[in-house]
Predict the structure.
Amino acid sequence: MAPSSLETVNYSADPSLNSVLRGVVKDVKDHAERLMSQIRELSSIGRSLSGVYDLDDLLEKIVDNARAFTHADAGTLYIKEDDRLRFSIFQNDSLGIRLGGKTGGAIPYPPLALDKHNVSAFVAMNGTSVNIPDVYDAALYDFTGPKKFDRTTGYRSKSMLVVLLKNHENDIIGVLQLLNARDTRTGKAVPFSKDCESLTQSLASQAAVAISNVKLITDMENLFEAFVKVMATAIDEKSPATGGHIRRVAHLTLTLAETINNKDSGPFKHVHFNEDQMHELRIASWMHDIGKVTTPVEIIEKSRKLETIFDRIEHVRLRMDYLVQKTRNRALKEQVEAMKSGANAGALQAIEAHAEKQVRQLLEIREFLTECNKPAEGLDDDKIERLKAIAQKTYIDDTGRRRPLITPDELENLSIRKGSITEAERKIMKEHAYMTLKMLSQIPFTKKFRNIPHFAGAHHECLDGTGYPLGLKGDEIPFEGKLMAVTDIAEALTSADRPYKKAMPLAEVHRVLRSLADKGKLDGDLVRLFIEEDVYSAYVRKYEKAQPAASELGPAPGPRKVTG
């Protein structure tokens, strides 16, 4: 007789019931433990994904973790782009296929259109997951692609789980498709469980947020780098005299850094720029002259000594022409007065001869001043003394005022021994390095880029402490600053777009660099590496193919930073 509801059944008296109970308890316990293990694993995956900042690496890790998590044999990750799903990762363990991501090859498959008959497109359009025990028994979706793949490879697509990747702003990022969940005991393909589906959806949400974060960081870095290049281009274009200088210095700097990375012997064998350090150096080199935005254009473009907004040599020449004409007019007046007094032809000719002698002197002075106005490699003492003597000469203008033949300012500029700028203008030019440091120090750079102001602001510092803007010396100068000091000088000497000088042959550039290193201005090891490894030619081949090769500029003579 069956017991009443108030009676207690003695299970221990019935062995069969006791066995069933133990089996149920074990199944519940195993399921709970498996579920807890999956939750812990899911949390661990979430933490690991949050620390990946390379998009290709992240996408690959998402599929790897999702497949390991669900014991799936294959997986595909699509990224949504406009109205299409682009293959991003394609993996299949049984067939040994790994495509896309950081380590895989290129994916040859075209993007999927958002078609409701395709299961992945359906998920993207409707925002709902799809769990199919066997794709060959499913009639709701078009599995022409998987079936064709199976015929071609001999594979058997069976269970499929497709989940949506949607970020915290409810934007659809992509679709994750897992194929053929494997029974851990038999290895056979089995359906994806409801628990797997639920937890994979959680994983997909974490993955979508991680992808959004990486894309946001990447977009911000790209935006910042683009802004840096726009600023650099604007500064270069501010003056045709330095157009392209910043770009060329940046590329030459990176070439020298890459050369250092390739050295496994010598003074730089333990020096290596990792990916982040190369990025930091690239930004610093693109920003090294940002302070020139404050430098007056008339100083940057000063191709003649008297040039300001225009070349004031025309004032000097006009003044000389005025004096020539005035001398001739005075001679004519003297001849008229002489004729009135009954002077003979000889007296008239003497007046004219004296005037022409004065005219020749004035014209010769005009030509001398014109020549002195051109930038010189070295104005000798005799010319300086002659300029001073000319400055002592005066004339009376039409108002009766006595004026100097050349003004004190004109004398100062024409007496410039080398180049075309005065010491006062040179100080203004040097100010750009200080302004670079000042401007960049106000930017709240991230930890990865915190050294940019120091690197960019040190490209005019000298090892002996005679550089600027801070007068650093020796190891006070960051290695990247020493590196840019070499490339900045090399680019300036080889540049053909400076109106005040000609481009130097490469052999002469190397001679100048050696001389500066011997004088304790530049790092000798860097200079030797630059010359011996023919860094300039490597830079031209890689970045400036349209420009003349280094060999065309002249034959080359003879044969630290923080480690990553």
About this structure: The chain has a mean pLDDT of 85.
